[in-house]
Amino acid sequence: VEQMNCPEVSGINTVVMNANWDANFTGPMWGTNILETSYGDGGIWKGTWSGKLNPDGTMSYKGTSKGVSGSVLGLILKVHGYTNEPNGPTFVEITIRDPGDS
After folding, report:
1. 86-94, long-range: CB within 8 Å, 24+ apart, which pairs?
2. How confident is the model over 13-23, as pLDDT tens digits?
3. What is the DSSP letter of 40?
4. I want to staple 16 with a disulfide (CB 3.0 to 4.6 A). Which of 26, 31, 64, 83 is the partner?
5. Contact of 82 with 58, CB cutoff 8 Å
6. What pLDDT was estimated at residue 86?
7. Cα 66 to the chain's mean position, in Å?
């Protein structure tokens, strides 16, 4: 369960991960996700993401999800996650927008 200070993206996030790592477990990774939020009347985000694990132990990823049901229907979610130190905390920057807004 992901708990964020943004209720629209707090909930159960099921992530599928693929990777092409070398013997040191570094290299690219990518996949899909489905996030079930209880925000409002509940809703589902579906998306894709990609990133990499670096030789210094840090990592970064970015992704895009679309609200496909409930209170997030039609919204677009952009996420960028990263670590600044090996095995350090993951920082996540999130932008949510309504594609109908100008």
Report:
1. 86/56, 86/57, 86/58, 87/57, 88/58, 90/59, 92/4, 94/4, 94/6, 94/9
2. 999 999 999 99
3. T
4. 31
5. yes
6. 87
7. 11
**Closest by Cα among 86, 89, 65, 87 to 76:** 65
Q: How long is the chain?
A: 102
Q: What angle do CA 25, 94, 87 make, to 5 degrees?
A: 30
pTM (2 d.p.): 0.87
Alpha carbon distance 56, 66 (integer Å):
32
Spell out the residues 6+ positions from residue 72 whose beta carbon is closer than 8 angstroms to its own: 8, 37, 39, 40, 43, 44, 45
Sign of CA dihedral 42, 44, 49, 54: positive
Distance from C-alpha of 67 to C-alpha of 101, rounded to nearest angstrom: 15
Q: Contact 33/46 with Cβ under 8 angstroms? A: yes
The pLDDT tens digits for 69-92 are: 999 999 999 999 999 998 888 899
pLDDT tens digits along 22-60: 999 999 999 999 999 999 999 999 999 999 999 999 999
